[in-house]
Target: Chromate transporter
Amino acid sequence: MNEKKSTTINNRKGIHSILEVFLVSLRLGFTSFGGPIAHLGYFHHEYVRRRKWLDERSYADLVALCQFLPGPASSQVGIGIGVMRSGLLGGIFAFIGFTLPSVIVLILFALFVQGFDVGNAGWIQGLKIVAVAVVAHAILGMASKLTPDVKRRTIALFAVITTLLWQSVITQVVVIVVAALIGFWIYREQKSPEVSNMEVPISKRFAIGCLSLFFGLLILLPFLREITSIHWIAVFDSFYRAGSLVFGGGHVVLPLLERELVPVGWITEETFLAGYGATQAVPGPLFTFAAYLGAMMNGWSGALLATTAIFLPAFLLILGTLPFWGLLRSNPKIQAGLFGVNAAVVGILIAALYHPIWTSSILNTADFALAAVLFGMLVFWKLPPWAVVLAGAIGGTLMEFML
Model:
């Protein structure tokens, strides 16, 4: 009887812990505006300072791991905290809570866009101009941290030129690999920081299984896409590959998704950029942009498929690397390669700012003037992203009647 009673108490504690993780992450999902860097600040305040679920050093190590991995860093940090707090289910419910609010809002926005003829509306143009200001702002912040010296700025310049002259997904993968090799060669003698031991309730065998599944899907999906010609497999492959190859945060996913979806006619470039602008107005991870794109292609089912596909690599990678992070992070060779990768990310983002964002959004001097105002609102006046998006929509509407 005592064993049964103890098991029941432990189950209740487990359920309570998982529910707590979900409710806390849900509140963060409703209130975390400002992009990945801001999200990490919200997480630090909630999980480290207020609830003390992990200490400062463990949080810093977890953030470092997620910056090292491809995918949405803030979402991976949230998943990692959920895992360390309540195991695998804790990670799943932490992800659902943080992601659900913005997913629902963006699906509803996509259905609204589909239901009305808004293709030439002024506020749509305004949202496209918002994307210019937001990405330019992101580049400034990332460049100051990721390219602090001439060598890394040179790597970024190499990434800009290569990505613009040979525009394909394969080009971006090659750029990242070459940048990693260059970074290893230049910075291989640099000392690595000390690391702390993080307690992770995941076995190394399970972690290896997650990593095997990650690479297996990355290799297998393109073959299935070619052999079967099934539409949903092609969609899943495009979003899964985008989620697997994005280094540097949500903004970098833009050129990957644009080149996967627009040329094949699954979505127009106009509605693509309008949705990207709208994504800046909602809290939560920028990767929920996939929910909008999926909904534009095939309603609610398309949104669920696209969202699952783009976030699945993040899940598999964080679960697969958490048990090994201490060993990886102390390796100076990996740290050196990461310096080069991060610099290349800045270059890829600059190329994306020019094409497709700038070339599709800044069509005249009035558009440039509005972009300058929106950029000033972000950089000089430090206004929240939702206010900038609202100003962009209003500005685009006013220009439609004035010009």
